[in-house]
Design goal:
It contains twelve helices and twelve strands. By secondary structure, it is of the alpha/beta class.
Length: about 350
């Protein structure tokens, strides 16, 4: 019945996936699909207690709106609205005609990133370099390196990072701009973060469900970040964030903020700290949801985001002036640091 993400197979016991067998019986009946979705989430979703969601009450409220004669579009809207009660950007219902999504984690907040402002710093395409999916350039009289990585799904490699750090070898500090980065590969996040530590770090914990009750979790398993064996950067670093930093980008910020030379500047991240699992309803629609909570090094949730060390917002006046105050704040902060 369920298709499970390979990454989670390394973390979860076999019995957690007892329901992962393919269910061959097809049914388009609205109530059967409603009950199947509610039960999948009830048994496997990981944030009910943390978010204080009364899932039984949700069942009762949305069940009253259900009709055995409702069409597939109305059923999809009803199920999507029920899932939105979880306020989870990792939770999506996928049909052939639509995908339900909860995006208020960034849509309800100022963007704090404008490409037209960033272009004032990057310049035209001939003015910056590209290594994989990373754009990079020297700023402020060549004294500060600037990297923009728009998605952790984008390519990044050790050779590419070596070239970038060599290009910045005479810079006093480095800006890593991940604003509007909606996530991607946790491996890419670790690959970059490993360049900023000289020692193995305990960066967080992960749990998995042991049973069907909402609070049936394993003890937290520690997650470590090992230092890269390649070139490492120990000079000042500013990581730029906004509300659109989600999932793997949130995880990257969680790791980077532990480095003594790193300062997070901008807005709170969008969160998204649950590893997702995929499942399937009797009518063939698929459901993705947060199944395993990732905690920070203090065993705290970051599902709703991580605050910056220095909060900076972009105002209408900044737009009129053609200046990005978040980049400007990062430059000033780095230039104020003592480099040994």
């Amino acid at each position: 019945m369920k298709r499970c993400l390979p990454y989670l197979l390394l973390l979860m016991p076999a019995f957690f996936f007892a329901a992962c067998e393919k269910e061959d019986r097809y049914s388009s009946m609205p109530r059967e699909n409603f009950e199947a979705l509610w039960k999948i989430m009830d048994e496997h979703y990981c944030f009910f207690e943390y978010k204080q969601v009364d899932w039984d009450e949700v069942h009762e409220r949305y069940g009253r709106q259900l009709s055995d004669t409702m069409g597939q579009f109305a059923l999809f809207d009803l199920l999507g609205s029920m899932l939105a009660e979880l306020k989870d950007g990792h939770t999506n219902l996928v049909s052939p005609f639509n995908v339900s999504r909860y995006l208020a984690w960034y849509e309800d907040y100022p963007p704090n990133f404008y490409k037209e402002l960033q272009d004032r710093y990057l310049g035209k395409s001939a003015d910056y370099l590209i290594a994989g999916s990373v754009k990079y350039k020297r700023l402020s009289g060549d004294s500060i390196g600037y990297m923009h990585y728009s998605s952790f799904s984008g390519s990044v490699s050790d050779p590419g990072l070596n070239y970038i750090f060599d290009y910045f070898k005479d810079c006093k500090g480095l800006i890593i701009d991940i604003r509007d980065n909606g996530g991607g590969s946790l491996a890419n996040a670790d690959l970059i973060a490993s360049r900023f530590t000289e020692e193995k770090l305990l960066t967080g914990y992960i749990q998995h469900k042991l049973g069907k009750e909402h609070g049936d979790f394993s003890e937290p398993y520690p997650v470590y970040l090992a230092p890269s064996t390649r070139v490492r950067w120990l000079r000042p670093v500013a990581v730029l964030t906004n509300r659109h930093c989600f999932s793997a980008a949130n995880d990257f910020v969680q790791k980077m903020r532990m480095m003594p030379q790193v300062t997070v500047i901008g807005d709170r991240t969008g969160g998204g700290s649950g590893l997702p699992l995929s499942s399937e309803l009797p009518n063939g629609w698929s459901i993705r949801f947060s199944a395993a909570p990732m905690l920070d090094a203090d065993k705290q949730h970051t599902e709703f985001g991580i605050d910056p060390d220095i909060r900076v917002n972009i105002t209408p006046q900044d737009l009129s002036n053609g200046k990005d105050p978040i980049i400007e704040a990062a430059i000033l902060h780095i230039l104020s640091q003592q480099v040994y």
